[in-house]
UniProtKB/TrEMBL annotation:
Species this protein is from: Trifolium subterraneum
Protein name: Uncharacterized protein
Any one Gene Ontology cellular component term annotated for this protein: Golgi apparatus
Domain Trichome birefringence-like N-terminal: from-to ranges: 4-56
Keywords, sorted A to Z: Membrane, Signal-anchor, Transmembrane, Transmembrane helix
Any Pfam family the entry gives: PC-Esterase
Membrane topology reported for the UniProt record: Single-pass membrane protein
Domain annotation Trichome birefringence-like C-terminal: ranges: 57-350
């Protein structure tokens, strides 16, 4: 496959070979993503692969990956969707080698001895500096986001990483205060003075945060790695949001071409992220590389790939509102494992191949 192939335009095709691992052959799947272990009755959502129009993406070869990454560290940084992707990568690699857990309080670390490869995860909800202390008229307890400052803990570790995969966006729906140039400029689910207009809403705040973290990486004096920005991961809540009764029950196969109903919020978040990415690219001064892994549209078709009500081993799955009107506890944001999320790591491998093999992938 050549560098000219567009990885992000194609369609989902049925793959009878099935997944690269099962929920029984990987010990690190978070319970909420273990859909088969939690009683999901259908399994065909595991049997689809992404096929770009211009080329094929080969099945992930764990040995090839470890050899390409020999002596290097891959870090997944961001929110719980970053964790979802990191665990998928571990599950795939686990099929050929059991890693040593070298994690500590600051980061999860798994070491694959055969090729001296480290897989790391660092939690950073927003990727920018976050504090909970009082600031101006914003009280203690509410998260304050300094949109123009990267997450300081994260920046300490960055020079140690060879490949970084970033994941962010969904926490901008949560309550927070936005600070720019040491001034409160907006907030999400927080704005005490309704007579005064906010300068920055949560969608704009997301775009600013992306530009901030990527610019910090692209100008870091000692970071020389490959930064892969995985684009905004779509959710598929219908009939409400995650906390107001939204569900994805009964989705058993991908949407066909032409069936997709565009999600305006997802598209707008994606646009903000791409804008932030492009602005950071213009400011880059170091030897690191920035790549956009543009999966948003591709994964809008995979409404079947989420845990939905199968997010716990409770046999009494709640799929409808109760008599008291309470919504069902569904997860239509994270991805079943195995499932579509494994494709993200196949794409990561393709990007790494292009980087380390001089432009072609077999």
């Amino acid at each position: 496959m050549t560098r000219s192939c567009d990885l992000y335009h194609g369609n989902w095709i049925h793959d009878p070979l099935g997944p690269l691992y099962t929920n029984n052959t990987c010990p690190v799947i978070t319970q909420m993503q273990n859909c088969q272990g939690n009683g999901r009755p259908d399994q065909d959502y595991e049997n689809w692969r992404w096929k770009p129009f211009q080329c094929d993406i080969p099945r992930f070869d764990p040995r090839k990956f470890l050899e390409l990454m020999r002596g290097k560290t891959l870090a997944f940084i961001g929110d719980s969707v970053a964790r979802n992707q990191m665990e998928s990568m571990l599950c795939i690699l686990w099929q050929v080698e059991t890693p040593k857990n070298r994690g500590n309080r600051n980061m999860q670390r798994y070491y694959f001895r055969s090729a001296s490869v480290m897989i790391v995860r660092i939690w950073s909800s927003w990727l920018v500096k976050q504090t909970s202390e009082p600031f101006d008229y914003a009280p203690a307890g509410v998260d304050k986001l300094h949109l123009d400052a990267p997450d300081t803990k994260l920046m300490e570790y960055i020079p140690n990483f060879d490949v970084v995969v970033l994941s962010s966006g969904h926490w901008f729906a949560k309550q927070s205060v936005y600070i720019l140039n040491n001034e409160i400029v907006g907030g999400q689910l927080w704005w005490p003075d309704k007579s005064k207009q906010m300068k920055v809403n949560n969608i704009q705040a997301y775009g600013i945060s992306v530009e901030t973290i990527l610019t910090a990486l692209a100008k870091h004096p000692t970071y020389k790695g490959l930064t892969i920005v995985r684009s905004y991961s779509p959710d598929h809540y219908e009939g409400g949001a995650w906390n107001t009764g939204g569900s994805c029950t009964g989705k058993v196969k991908p949407l066909a071409l032409g069936e997709l109903v565009e999600n305006e919020y997802t598209n707008t978040m994606h646009e903000q992220q791409v804008t932030g990415f492009n602005r950071a690219m213009e400011k880059a001064t170091n030897q690191s590389k920035l790549k956009l892994m543009d999966i948003t549209k591709v994964f809008q078709y995979r409404h079947d790939g989420h845990p939905g009500p199968y997010r716990s081993p409770d046999p009494n799955k709640i799929t409808k509102r109760g008599p008291d009107g309470r919504p069902p506890p569904q997860d239509c944001l994270h991805w079943c494992m195995p499932g579509p999320v494994d494709t993200w790591n196949e794409l990561v491998l393709e990007i790494i191949k292009r980087e380390y093999e001089g432009g072609s992938a077999s």
